Amino acid sequence: MRRRARAAEAAAVGLSVLLLLLGTACGSRLPESDFGDRAGRTPAARGTEPIRVGIVTSATSPVGGDAFTGPRDGAKAYFDALNARGGVDGRKVEVRTCDDGGSGVGNNECVHRLVDEDRVVALVATTALDYAGAPRVARARVPDIGGQPIGAAYDTYPHLYGIYGSLAPRNGKPGWDGKLYGGTEVYRWFKREHGARTAAVVSYNQSASAAYARLVVRGLKAEGYEVVTEQVDFALPNFRAAAADLKERGADLVFDAIDGHGNARLCEAMDDVGAEVLAKVTNVQNWTSTVREDYADAPRCRNALWATGASRNYEDVGHGAVREFRDGTKSLRTHSQWQLEGWAAAMWFTDAARSCAGTGVTRACVDRFMATGEPYTARGLLLPVRFERLPEPPRTRRTCLSVARWEDDRGWVSQGDMDRACQDVPQLPYDP
Question: Which residues form the Leucine-binding protein domain (predicted)?
Answer without folding.
Answer: 50-407
